[in-house]
Model the fold of this input.
Amino acid sequence: MTLVVAGSAIVGALVFAGVSVWPFPQLLAWIREAPVKGGKVIHTAVAEPFDAATALIICVLVLLPLSAIAGHALVEPLRRLMRALQSAVASYRDGDFSMSIGTRRHDELGDLIRVHNELGQTLRDQRQHLAQRELLLDTVVQNTPVALVLTDGSGKVTYANIAGRQLFNQGKSLVGLDFDTLLADMPENLREAAAGGEDALFSVEMDGSEETFHLSQRGFRLQGRPHRLQLYRRMTRELSRQEVQTWKRVIRVISHELNNSLAPITSLSHSGAELARRGDLERLPGVFASIGDRARHLHGFIAGYASFAKLPAPQSRHVPWGPFLDALSLHARFHLRAAPPEQPGWFDPSQVEQVMINLIKNAHESGGAADDVSVAVHTVGREVLIEVADRGPGMSETVLAQALLPFYSTKRSGTGLGLALAREISEAHGGRISLANRDGGGLRVTMVLPAGPV
Done:
């Protein structure tokens, strides 16, 4: 560009000198020839330089076409380059990174074009890598057995995998549909768990059989907007396998306890017989007392499991909530979060009282403050919800998924009868029981009972 500007200045100076000094004035003077006399040409004109204004006008008339031609020759490659860059940027904006620009220039513009092509190649590589990762992730998510549903702040479904479509819309697409509208056609237990906004374990009747689900919900912001991810995992087969393993564990525990009690009893009986044979009757009362202690211990151990196995059918009747909760407060410490319903409940008071005592005891043993253990009773439609809540550490997803298994316990010396008994009694009443972690820490156990005779 510097050479172009310098050359333009030199050409302009030369043209101005040629017009005003030499040779243009001499040429005009030569053209003005004198009249011919006697066959001789006599020049009468004399070469005189033009004035500045005339010379300037002539220079402008000469240089304008030359400037136009030179400017077009210089600018046209730049214009072509700008159009190529504009098309490339437009392609990048549309997500097409396949365009590159060819050049033979070895100046700064050539360097710019080469850097641009390297950028395009880098973007193509990154785009291909991201596409492969997205394809892999989508394949994994679509084929997972966990039903996945992602909703935005307005409750519209923005993403759902194959399992989610099969669970909520018979395999049809869910994108753009209102999730609350979809939940309206689902079983009530599923609707309540989804509306709770927390992790939960629940059972629903589907295709003529009972299915148990574990629901995990998480809220987050995607592209600056609130979204909620819900994962519905079928736990029926897993619970069945765990239940078989639990029964095996129970049989091993009972067998171990029987051996620990019967072996001493057998040994003491042999010792008593030997003492009687020798006539040493003074030591026999101690032997019989030891046998009695071991027998009572074994009886107490077996009685706990026998009470679960021989649980009688509930004798439901109308029970006012006020007196029932007042009597319960004599056995367990808790506070009511709200006034109980005025309409009496329909259940077996002795069985439900035993369940409530076990649940409140577990809440006190959770590790939270004793004053945070609360009970709430409220009516929803034709059902009564009895909630026992604490502010302990809650349960992990693994424990939450197995907590309702028979005889499952996280306590080292626990028998696992608490929640198992609560589940058995609630189902015998035609209800159910569910667990959910609370916001801010803690666990909420909800026992659902019919509000009246079924």
